[in-house]
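Need a sequence for this fold. Nothing fancy.
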């Protein structure tokens, strides 16, 4: 067993890779709540691959990772494992992202009882023509719901502006047309290709004795090792953005804007850049920033814009979201502020203040077992050790953050997605 200790936050991460290739991680916390997540490195972007031992390229319908997530709960005995887990008092769920799918539950009691059901359903898929067809209508309703969700439309439109061919453009749930092509054979195909022990991780956080819980989990593993790798195939993306601007009318009261910057440098240290962008977010858009004060006092903006750096193995970008009735004016003022900061440099006090803020936010993430476990999973599939965020802080200085600002926040990489109120809403 490997033990990684971070003295800055006084936490230990216990890691064991078992014989079949599955990785188990435990971060113990003295809290009543216990949390477990079992995740596979397979998400919406993984739609083309060579299955283990095969020479013919497999292309699967968009939305199939999410479809499998739904179907894995259904068992041969006719029960739905999600219902079984809920009936014994645990909060069970699952989610699909662009690069991984995760199954989880959290509880204060009955953890061991729930573990039996949890370990069973993830390892024993049961797909039939009937139960696959039954799920189609449910997922169609979910797709329709997301189609009516302004923030999701805002995000997907930004991705379509930013990327021409990258699979990040694929809606996680797919479309009515693509899910119509999903059948039990395709579900088994992707399960066997990606739900392999060496492509998966189990993370636990809560009041555990690491050695004991790892042995308990290991005793319930039935998956066999499959050393033959699944080879993924991704589209080659151009460096240029696809479109500069897109807008859509929906049932909202105030225009919502998502300003994005495409990052083509996928090899640079993403941890450092992630921290730098978080620092820049506070300097440029934080409530104590000059820009926010001007926009707020003039009534052009009412809440602090949210900034986020999204990255994976095939894409990276910055997203800045805000609401305003003065879209063009606010975008112009943001551009002016960014150009002024590039020209004059960052204020030293603002830099130090926001660096401390980001550090404090990272520490807060280790107060909640759910944030801990899901954060470790997301980082793991990006080839990141979550503790490394703390180690990188000492190497981040004002000059580095200024370089990130100059290299990434440029007009040629900028896209704007806007959701505006329907015309009748504006009247």
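Here you go.
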């Amino acid at each position: 067993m490997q033990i990684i200790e971070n003295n800055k936050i006084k936490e230990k991460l216990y890691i064991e890779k078992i014989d079949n290739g599955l990785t188990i991680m435990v971060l113990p916390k003295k809290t009543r709540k216990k949390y477990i997540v079992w995740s596979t490195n397979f998400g919406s972007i993984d739609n083309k691959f060579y299955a283990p031992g095969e020479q013919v390229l497999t292309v699967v319908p968009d939305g199939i990772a999410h479809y499998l997530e739904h179907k894995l709960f259904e068992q041969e005995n006719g029960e739905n494992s999600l219902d079984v887990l809920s009936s014994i008092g645990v909060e069970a769920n699952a989610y699909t992202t662009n690069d991984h799918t995760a199954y989880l539950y959290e509880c204060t009691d009955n953890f061991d009882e729930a573990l039996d059901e949890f370990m069973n359903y993830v390892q024993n898929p049961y797909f039939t023509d009937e139960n696959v067809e039954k799920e189609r209508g449910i997922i169609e309703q979910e797709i329709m719901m997301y189609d009516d969700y302004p923030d999701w439309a805002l995000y997907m439109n930004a991705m379509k502006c930013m990327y021409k061919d990258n699979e990040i453009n694929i809606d996680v749930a797919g479309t009515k047309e693509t899910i119509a092509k999903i059948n039990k054979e395709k579900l088994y195909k992707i399960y066997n290709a990606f739900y392999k022990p060496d492509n998966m991780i189990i993370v636990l956080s809560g009041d555990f004795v690491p050695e004991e819980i790892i042995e308990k989990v290991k005793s319930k593993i039935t998956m066999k090792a499959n050393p033959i790798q699944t080879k993924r195939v991704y589209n080659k993306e151009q460096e240029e953005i696809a479109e500069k601007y897109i807008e859509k009318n929906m049932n909202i009261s105030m225009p919502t804007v998502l300003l994005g910057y495409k990052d083509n440098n996928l090899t640079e240290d993403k941890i450092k850049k992630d921290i730098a962008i978080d620092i820049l977010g506070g300097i440029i858009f934080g409530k104590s920033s000059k820009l926010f004060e001007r926009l707020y006092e003039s009534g052009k903006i009412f809440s602090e814009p949210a900034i986020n750096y999204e990255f994976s193995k095939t894409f990276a970008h910055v997203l800045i979201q805000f609401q305003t009735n003065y879209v063009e004016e606010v975008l112009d003022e943001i551009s002016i502020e960014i150009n002024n900061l590039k020209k004059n440099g960052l204020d030293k006090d603002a830099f130090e203040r926001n660096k401390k803020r980001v550090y404090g936010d990272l520490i807060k993430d280790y107060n909640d077992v759910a944030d801990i476990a899901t954060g470790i999973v997301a980082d793991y599939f990006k080839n990141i050790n979550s503790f490394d965020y703390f180690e990188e802080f000492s190497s981040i200085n004002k000059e580095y953050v200024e370089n990130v600002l100059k290299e990434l926040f440029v007009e040629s990489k900028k896209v704007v997605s806007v959701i505006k109120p329907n015309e009748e809403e504006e009247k």
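For context: DSSP finds 16 helices and 15 strands in the chain.
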